[in-house]
Amino acid sequence: MTSLSPQPSTPPVPSPPAPSGGPGTGLRRSLGVVDGVAIAASSTAATTSIAIGMGTIATIVGLQAPALLLLAFLPVLGIATAYARLNRSEPNCGNGYTWVGRTLGPWPGFLTGWVTIVGSVIFCAYTSAIMGSVVLIFANKAGLHSLAGIALDPASTGISTAVGLVLLLGLTALAVTGTRATTRFQFALLVFEYTVLLGFCGWALVTGDQSFSLSWFNPFEIADGTTFAQGMVLAVFFFWGWDAAFSVNEETKSPDDAARGGLIALFAMLGLFLFASVAFQREMSLTELIKNGPQALPYLGQKLAAEPWATLPVVALMFSAAASVQSTLIPTARGLLAMGRDRTMGPLWTRVHSRYGTPAAGTVVVLSIATAIALLAVAIPRLSDMLLAAVNSIGLLVALYYGLTALACAVRFRSARREGLRTAVLAVGVPAVSSLVLLGLGGYLGYSYLTMSDHFELSPDNGWFMFSLPAVIVLAGLGMAAVAKYVRRSPYFTTGSGTDAEAITLPMDRTAV
């Protein structure tokens, strides 16, 4: 058998898909640019990233969060241009999994799809704990501090997870009913949460008693290389999610709509993150940011307003967490649909609901796996510690699959060097540099984790533990790739013919995983 080889030149642009959706997917084409922006913005979850991230990043790099957010945006923008160009050439709900597989080979392609999906499932798992924590904050505000002898502590991983999983079940049911209904729901959430976020951050920016300093934008004030790398990976995680718009290509009226939606959301997130980071640091000292950690946004509300207005940031956080979980379920299930149709994963993932036109069975299974991971995370008792461990692990996975996808773009379009300087820079140069930056950061940080501890411990401060999580995920991915090639005998590992979204008749009547 032969493996896929890199394409020597730009592949032909596929013919426009049928308006009703391709025969191979069964998904309905009903989404436009605005819907893509809603999915990308909800998946990026600016309010959630700000709420849990500002305090978390402060524990690593102090007051240099604005500098790192601005720096991290540059390679992420390069990744976004790679996604847009690849998407114009080959619109596909499998995106990185398909693009990397066709260009760099099936093994890195499968690994790209695998780490994308696993990272998303982990995100759903720990964000459910955030939702539960917010509900418990509401309960505490209402005077309910215990139930049946159980303390309703928002900082408890176990109690927060139990409550959050109930909410996750409801969000999964809504995601199954279709992306159109989902995006309408998410628009309502986005309007409310951004209004609250901009209002409170704007007030903090004006009234804060911490002096503004240009040093906040100076990355050279960060102590050492390891701290810088960890902070950069965390800052990249802030932006993670804009690529969700590219996962609904088969449900989007035009492939360009997905690209525009993702890029619009990405630039909007940059503005929000910089605005919020400066506002937080105007209102809170470094000590306050570190102390409050993932509770920094509710703390900001308490500092700036009396009740009931002080509760509004908590409501916004709740809406953001709910929208981000729901919008993460969409690309995860569709990524598995792409892998299932290629037989790199089982046929269960290819089952599209006859009424809603969504991969309903896969969405439900993703919920089940996220639930299991959330329950395992209870082994880390403090919510803030569990969140830090999850964010660091996902950050490394995001750096890996973004880096591989951008590298695939640079390799696939390398012949564009002969088409002029501008085309060569956008198609090859920018993706190549962005890929090297992210893969280099991930590799350096992984090495730092291995050398920072001399024993293993379930703690976000333990380097071996932080390295083991993404390492196990990558090794498991390689094992699943071997199963796909040698047991399932997937065409993805031979001719690549199974990667065309519109060419495969899905095995709708098969139920085995």
What does the model show?
The protein is globular, with a radius of gyration of 22 Å. It has a two-stranded antiparallel ribbon with strand order 1-2. It has 16 helices and two strands. It is an all-alpha fold. The longest helix has 36 residues, at 106-141.
Radius of gyration: 22 Å
Q: How many DSSP H or I helices?
A: 16
Strand count, sense and closure of the main sheet? Answer: 2 strands, antiparallel
Proportion of residues in extended strands: under 5%
Net shape: globular
End-to-end Cα distance? 25 Å
**What value does the average pLDDT take?**
80
The percent range for helix content is 55-70%
Succession of helices and strands: HHHHHEEHHHHHHHHHHH
Uncertain runs:
1-31, 501-513
Comma- or semicolon-separated keywords:
mainly alpha; 513 residues; disordered C terminus; two-stranded antiparallel ribbon; 16 helices
Short summary:
The protein is mainly α.
List strands and helices in order, with pairings.
Blueprint: H1 33-44, H2 46-61, H3 65-89, H4 96-103, H5 106-141, E1 146-147, E2 150-151, H6 157-176, H7 179-207, H8 225-239, H9 255-283, H10 286-292, H11 296-304, H12 312-341, H13 360-376, H14 383-412, H15 421-452, H16 463-486
Antiparallel strand pairs: 1-2
Helix pairs in contact: 1-7, 1-9, 1-12, 2-8, 2-10, 2-12, 3-8, 3-9, 3-14, 3-15, 4-5, 4-14, 5-6, 5-12, 5-13, 5-14, 5-16, 6-12, 6-13, 7-9, 7-12, 8-14, 8-15, 11-12, 12-13, 14-15, 14-16, 15-16
